[in-house]
Write a structure and sequence with these properties.
- This protein is α/β, with parallel strands linked by helices.
- It has four domains: 187 residues, SGNH hydrolase (Rossmann fold, 3-Layer(aba) Sandwich), CATH 3.40.50.1110; 146 residues, Rossmann fold; 181 residues, Gcn5-related N-acetyltransferase (GNAT) (Aminopeptidase), CATH 3.40.630; 127 residues, Non-ribosomal Peptide Synthetase Peptidyl Carrier Protein, Chain A.
- 45% of the residues lie in helices and 14% in strands.
- The strands form three sheets. Strands 11, 12, 13, 14, 15, 16, 17 and 18 form an eight-stranded mixed sheet that branches. The protein has a five-stranded parallel sheet with strand order 2-1-3-4-5, sandwiched between helices. A five-stranded parallel sheet has the order 8-7-6-9-10.
- The radius of gyration is 33 Å and the shape is globular.
- The N terminus is likely disordered.
Amino acid sequence: MNTVALESEGRVAIAASFVAEPIEQALRYWLDKLDIAKPIAFAPYNQVLQQLLDPLSLLGANRHGSNVVLVRPEDWLRDQPGAALDAGLIERNAHELVLALKGAAARGMPHFFCFCPASPRALADAALRAALARTENLVAAQLNAVPGVHVATSAYLASIYPVPDYHDEHADRIAHIPYTPRAFTAFGTALARKLHAPNNAARKLIVLDGDGTLWDGVCGEDGPHGIQIGAERMALQRFMIEQHDAGMLLGVCSANNEEDLAEVFRQRADMPLTREHFAAWRVNWQPKSENIRAMAEQLNVGLDSIVFIDDDEVACAEVRAHCPQVMTLQLPRRIETIPRFLRNLWLFDRLNVTAEAGSRTAAYRHESQREQLRQAAPTLEDFIAGLDLRCEMAPLTETDIPRVAELTQRTNQFNLTTRRRSEAELQGLCLAGQAECLVVRVSDRLGDYGLVGALIFHVRTEALEVESFLLSCRALGRGVEYRMLAALGDIARQRGLERVDLDFVPTQKNRPAREFLNAVSADFANDCNDPDIDAARTIKIAAAFAAASGFPRSRQIRQAALAQGSAGRLVVAPPEEQPQPGAAAAIDAARFSSIAVGCCDAEQIHRAISSQARQRADLPTSFVAPRSDLEKELAAIWSELLGIDQIGVEDNFFDLGGHSLSAMQMLSRIRDACKVELSLRSLFSDQFTIANVALMVIEHQAQAGNQANFEELLSEINALSDEEVRALLAEAAPGQDLSGK
């Protein structure tokens, strides 16, 4: 088995059932473009199970990286006589693969598992095609339930960036490289989208314009039935419903009379979007930046969690200028390109959708009702009592992991450390016993909040050390955080511990967490004027005091804390330098828009990657430009595969950076372009240059041509009668007696 030293640096580690190295070019292109600073490494050929099972393998030791597993199930039959169908072998390998992935994911690294498309020959065999489909469906269903394992099916890979001629039969046969360069580009791009998807968790609200965005026309002038909702606008609305169902909040921000816009939603029953899909609604003549700020305050979300989409260039510029933290996207002018633009906005990609996600708009609607109760209640304590709040805390289970991972990624305001965790990390940390985790579910008489909080802690010698204490903003202001602290205090006392130690890392967003600590910690409250208040620290709270905390006694808690001095202070790290507001949003908006417009299909992406050609290295041979059409064609193939702009006919393939795998691809490309099959021996020589390859091609074509001419002549002669043959011979040799021949 391949072993590597344990490293702190994460990487993208890839194991495959076939030769997958050609995927690196596209994957590296996207990682660089997305500023994902991770090296790419490949496991030894066809060692998938070994890599998953061995904790010291490339994948097993990749503690801080992402593991990728590429499997084409028909490869399991590759060594069978004639690739005969063996359903039992396929089933056994699939079962072992699932067990191995479950065990690997439990070690805490995220795994991206991809079923790669079968060859046309396998698909042409009805029995084999059915067996492969059953296997894929069964494995995908089992792995989708494994935290930290993210599955991409062959149908997904084939649909997101279709490549008609995806299979390279020649390279598959001679070197087990089953896909064409464009197919590897498509798969690498699809994989990059999966690897990038966790970065999108911070986006919570999509704000949409009305006229020119949700429909064509002006509702105030054309009326509800005068506006046009063609196929492109229908596609946009359905896309937004998909985002709504995936957990994004939707808002309308339109320069209109409110009644005119409302009439559209009342009268146009043919629209997929309804008024109920929107959690926020700002229709007036105020600047859109002001309306977006009002929405953010209403929904208690940060400006940097908002995406604004409008067709109008001026409106987009106004929002960019006054709300730079908002990601502002302008729709393409050509409406026929809008559906493709939306499908290729990577910022909306998600690895999974939790049960709570689809109910977010309803939750905010319930929150509006709660706000009405709050305003009617004489005191905050009366408001809490009137809600009949129920708070349940329980140990983390495997089914909770996706939601808790989502909370760590999305929760900013009440999050003491803002420490992000993936599903795989939670699996390895909490279910493997390295830490403990309590999940918090809340409901009241108006509705169910769902799983809204989490506590991750370690049991130390004297204290319960809490590394993550977080609560969704939808449950803030109801005293849930105090009940969470009380639960920690109870656990500490039951285990004979003196304290509850809360790690705290201040950010620009977690002001509610700071105010909570100010209420429960005497030391923290006394340090408010300390110049080091913005440094990370550990807040130490006596276990008995923590257990006695509980809302709505926050005023008494703070007074008792100040009197008893129940907390301590320890600076553990300097604060992180914060970027300029809005800089990241503007960069990301430009980047995502550029991808959505210019990198929509495999051909576009392949051209973009190929255009990043490297300069020709200093070689012992001088540059000699291609002279014939054949040499120019070969130079174009070499340039695309090697990524070098200028290639001379006397340059050696391996001196240019070529290797055995790219040489195999080169043979396959030459075979397709020139209709000749060069031998493997021709590759590994000092004469592997364009000039020599061109001569070999010409020789093979000549031999093939001579053979074809000879066979054609024989066929014509065989079709002649004896008399016709004698006549031709007599014409060729006049005066000779041919009667006996």
